[in-house]
Amino acid sequence: MSTSTAENITSVIRERQSVRKYDPNFTISRQEIEEILEDAIQAPSSSNLQPWRFIVIDDQETKKELRQIANNQEQVETSSAVIAVLADKEMYQNIEKVYRSNYEAGYMDEANMQRMIDNSHSLYGSLPEEIRKNIASFDTGLVTMQIMLLAKAKGYDTVPMGGFDKQKFMEKFQVSDRYMPVLLLAIGKAAAPAFKTTRIPLKDIVEFV
After folding, report:
1. What residues does the Nitroreductase domain cover (predicted)?
2. Which domain holds residue 192?
3. 58 occurs within a structural domain
């Protein structure tokens, strides 16, 4: 990695802040949101099972309805869109699709593909749902962070929100019980700066052994 690339990444990370005031007249196109998500889903996941799903809410009336589900948070309505990030509790249902795709792309031979399919089915299919939920939640956190950084690199702002009625959300958007709403991510153009925050000093949270 070149020095300039590393500096650019560091700059994006440090400039990203949670913005809650958005320009309600600013629109991000669906195409650009798709481009952000296309890059974001390169995130790592357990056994590459990619247990994330997205619902993008950009219709103004629907955002108003969502605001009531999301504790009346203003940014739900004023941002360009809200990306709902869902976790797939039955990610093992993706196993064959994932590894067959790798095989067809030439990334593994057929024997290796079958071995990975069999091993993953055996492992994930036997796990208690609570453990699968923890795995899926962890992985959706990884993809969400990438969305936020990619958005910032394009000049947009975001704020993740965990405070919403998940059951009402599932009913409103007809989400299958297979999926678990993890967070809502507002994305748009800031109308006011984010609140400045500090971080715990590194020396207080790192230990080398």
Report:
1. 13-189
2. 3-204
3. yes
Identify whether 209 is part of a domain: no
In sequence order, what are the beta bridge partners of 57? 82
Contact between 52 and 88 under an 8 Å Cβ cutoff? The reply is yes
SS3 at position 85: strand
CA distances from 26 to 59, 63, 122, 173 (A): 13, 14, 48, 25
Examine residue 65 and state whether it is found in any structural domain, yes or no: yes
* Range 42-60 burial, b when 16+ CB lie within 10 A, else e: ebebbbebbbbbbbebbee
Identify the three-state secondary structure at position 84.
strand
Sequential pLDDT tens for the chain (209 residues) = 677 788 899 999 999 999 999 999 999 999 999 999 999 999 999 999 999 999 999 999 999 999 999 999 999 999 999 999 999 999 999 999 999 999 999 999 999 999 999 999 999 989 999 999 999 999 999 999 999 999 999 999 999 999 999 999 999 999 999 999 999 999 999 999 999 899 999 999 999 99
Q: Where are the beta strands (DSSP E) in 40-190?
A: 52-57, 81-88, 157-161, 179-188
pTM of the predicted protein model: 0.95
Q: How many domains does the chain have?
A: 1
Residue 10: inside a domain:
yes
Both tokens of 202, joined, read 């590194």
Which CATH number does the domain housing residue 120 bear? 3.40.109.10
